[in-house]
Structure formats: C-alpha cells, structure tokens
Design goal:
137 residues, mainly alpha, 8 helices, 64% helix, globular
C-alpha cells in the first residue's frame, strides 16, 4: 500500500506512530497524523495550511486539548484509504501529505476532522490548494 506514498507522507506516518506511542497507543490515530502534519510546514499539507492562513499553533492546541479530554482516538486506517482515493481522483502519481489532509477531512467524527472543519477547512478548498502548491516526491 505504501509504495505509492511520497517520502514525506511515509515519514509523516512514521512520526505520527511516535506520537501515538508517546500517548500510550499501539496504533496511529487521526489526531496523531494531524499533529504531525501541523508540525511540518515544508510538506504539501504544511504549504496548504500556510496558503489558507491557518493558525497551526492554535490547531495543534485544540487537537491536543481534544486528546487530553479523553475521547477515544479514531484509528487512521480509514483516512489512509480515503487519501488513496483522493490521490487517484486527482490523478496524481504519488500520494502526498496533501492527500493525507484530505483523508482527515473526510473523517469528521474524529477530533482531527472536527478541528479541521471547525477551522473552516473543506475538501474543495484543499483540493484547489493542492493543485497550486508543489507536490513532494
């Protein structure tokens, strides 16, 4: 599954697994993945956040508060499948962090998806921005 992922997307998932372990989980949640994307401005997702003038520090704070509130984190497996669908629908040769961001947006029941939607982000705007910013390999 991961062979078509960009190096940055793979690294993001690896870093998110470290975040999950820090929170004592044996799986990567949507929150872990979003926290990583918010921490790396040099990837496609980071450039999208910047292009949309998102306050990534505030978004991180809200995600961390949601985790601290004790809600059950949503595993990111469905997000990865949705990211693959987004990559295919956009006819991109490589799945990047922008596609992971789109996958997170399609999981509105999770803390991560809820935070993104509450910040006014929607899939249409993200797709437009992904087309405008350089993609990682």
């Amino acid at each position: 599954m991961y062979q078509r992922f960009s190096v940055e997307a793979r690294q993001s998932i690896i870093r998110a697994s470290r975040v999950a372990r820090r929170f004592g989980r044996g799986y990567v949640s949507t929150e872990d993945l979003l926290l990583d994307l918010l921490s790396h401005g040099d990837c496609t997702a980071g450039r999208v956040f910047a292009a949309l003038d998102c306050d990534v520090l505030e978004l991180r704070r809200v995600v961390e508060a949601g985790i601290a509130a004790g809600g059950l984190p949503v595993p990111s497996r469905a997000v990865l499948h949705r990211a693959v669908e987004e990559c295919r629908s956009l006819k991109h040769p490589c799945l990047g962090t922008g596609h992971l961001l789109l996958g997170l947006l399609r999981e509105p029941q999770s803390v991560a998806g809820g935070v993104l939607h509450a910040a006014g982000l929607d899939a249409g705007r993200i797709r437009e921005r992904i087309a405008d910013v350089p993609q990682e390999n």
